[in-house]
Automatic annotation (TrEMBL):
Positions of the ABC transporter domain: 2-227
PROSITE patterns linked: ABC_TRANSPORTER_2
Pfam families in the cross-refs: ABC_tran (PF00005)
GO molecular function terms attached to this record: ATP binding; ATP hydrolysis activity
Keyword 4Fe-4S listed: no
Protein known as: ABC transporter ATP-binding protein
Domain of life: Bacteria
Length: 328
């Protein structure tokens, strides 16, 4: 279990983590999401005692990391792909770690089997693929049989089989009652792996909620509207505060708060997608202007769309919207 309360980290004038409070509970996989530079790695380093908070606290199993009597038995971590001595075998790497923490050789054998490295355990790490290195990193994190796991981008660079393997492993470890905190940029993957979410932006907490609730909340404000006077209605809805896309729009489209001019031929000219206004309000605006509606359908969004919606203002770096029509 991890409990952060008022966690803050400043680097000079830069606030990397800002008054962050959250809980990572046992028995579930908690996804840790945020745009680049949001403060995820800094938060994870503070959990593991690698960085000292400017203020606030973060406790693992009720204690500061530095006060844990046998830290490896409480928390295992995979941070950025750690440099493993290239001349050392996977087995030797794990044995050295085990010795440092008073962990048995039997446990080394167990984790080698658990992560599927038996076939290459006596091979030198210099020849390891990224996927094998990730497996070895996870084996290291699991050595002390910890009740809490903190994994920073564990599926980075893995092939689909490796991604699936990590997903099943994490869900299995959570089902055993462990607390799992995992960051990832792959939203589709997170939607399949995590049941809880902590979302941060510019160092601050944006949401702590279940994946289902997060998606449901965002879905309420994505509405597909079909109307013969769609573009006129679109302009009225923009005036009422919505963002309106013309035709059928795909996830991840960058928009600028206006009706998109049709640089690309729109799929359906009488259809608009409205973001940011609930369907009753859209119906009222249409009715007030005598506009007939043929369809008004709230749409279930993907986790990625929900994430983009909620973090758009919190992204440290955002791409400039593409100019409609381009330079063709
Ligand atoms: N040692 C440091 N000195 C100064 N600034 C830092 C330091 N470490 C991180 N930062 C800044 O703090 C902010 C948060 O960085 P952090 O690496 O924690 O974000 P992140 O969410 O992990 O990002 P990413 O997804 O890109 O890995 C960034 O603006 C970063 O530039």
């Amino acid at each position: 279990m991890i409990e952060a309360r008022g966690l803050t980290k400043r680097y000079g004038g830069k606030v990397a983590v800002d008054d962050l409070s959250f809980t990572v509970r046992p028995g579930v996989v908690t996804g840790f999401l945020g745009p680049n530079g949001a403060g995820k790695s800094t938060t994870m380093r503070m959990i593991l005692g690698l960085d000292r908070p400017t203020s606030g606290t973060v406790l693992v199993d009720g204690r500061h990391y530095r006060d844990l009597p046998a830290p490896a038995r409480h928390v295992g971590a995979l941070l950025e792909s750690r440099a493993i001595h290239p001349g050392r075998t996977a087995e030797n790497h794990l044995l050295t770690l085990a010795r440092t923490h008073g962990i048995s050789r039997r446990r080394v054998d167990q984790v080698i089997d658990l992560v599927g490295l038996r076939g290459v355990a006596r091979k030198r790490a210099r020849g390891f693929s990224l996927g094998m290195n990730q497996r070895l990193g996870i084996a290291s994190a699991l050595l002390g049989d910890p009740s809490t796991l903190v994994l920073d981008e564990p599926v980075n660079g893995l092939d689909p089989e490796g991604i699936r393997w990590i997903r099943d492993l994490l869900r299995g470890l959570a089902a055993e009652g462990r607390s799992i905190m995992v960051s990832s940029h792959l939203m589709s993957e997170m939607a399949l792996t995590a049941t809880e979410l902590i979302v941060i932006g510019r160092g601050r907490l944006i949401a702590q909620t279940s994946v289902d609730e997060f998606v449901r909340a965002a879905s309420g404000t994505h509405v597909r509207v079909r109307a013969p006077r769609a573009s006129e209605l679109g302009a009225l809805l923009v005036h009422a505060g919505a963002t309106v896309h013309a035709g059928t729009v795909h996830a991840g489209t960058v928009h600028a708060g206006t009706v998109q001019s049709a640089g690309e031929p729109a799929g359906e000219p009488d259809v608009i997608e409205v973001v940011g206004l609930p369907s009753p309000r859209i119906g009222e605006v249409a009715s007030a202007h005598g506009i007939t509606l043929h369809e008004l359908t709230p749409r279930l969004v993907s986790l990625e769309e929900a994430f983009m919606d909620i973090t758009r203002d919190a992204a440290e770096f955002t791409a400039a919207p593409a100019l409609a029509g381009g330079n063709r």
